[in-house]
Amino acid sequence: MGTARRSVRESLLDAAADLLVERGYRAVRMRDVADAAGVSRQTVYNEFGDKWGLARAVVVRHNERYLDGIDAVLSRHDDLYSAVVAAVTYTLEMSADDRLKKAVLTGAGGDEMLPLLTTRAEPVMFTASARIAEHALRRWPHLDRAALTEITDAAVRLTASHIMLPSGPPERLAHVIARMVTRYLDVPGPR
């Protein structure tokens, strides 16, 4: 993708993210996004197809940025248990202050975007699970790939459910999930 096209795409995604947070999905028009980014409405349609495609692209980009943070968090830990605790805590704390995620989860302006994190969450959930598992395998190559893939998916889904309906302090849940992961993979937990 050329630099100019990437710049237009990023400008459109920035504008759409801001508008989605401010107004909610239902109130945002493609014209609004185009005006905010300083391009034609047709440019928005050419880039994303329709409003759902635009919203999906906003959420996917947001997820990629979050996963960059997870990569950094995981890299700071030598043992799997503390890495999982840190990653889950990071996720829950970041989500608590995440305006876009709140807009999606609370249905501000309508609940049309909620499927991006629930019933149509493949681009977000599967990408997160796969990327976290690959990071863990690079960091701890002795882990069983199939088992790690299974438990990573379960840990991501469990963490996501607690984003939507918190049940206590993030660190408490983080330790529960870390125990689940390390026991499933039969690796040492906390000493």
UniProtKB/TrEMBL annotation:
UniProt KW keywords: DNA-binding
DNA-binding region, residue range(s): 29-48
One Pfam family linked to the record: TetR_N
Domain called HTH tetR-type: residue spans: 6-66
InterPro entries with a match to the protein in the record: AlkX_C, Homeodomain-like_sf, HTH-type_TetR-like_transc_reg, HTH_TetR
Molecular functions per Gene Ontology: DNA-binding transcription factor activity; transcription cis-regulatory region binding
Name of the protein in question: TetR/AcrR family transcriptional regulator
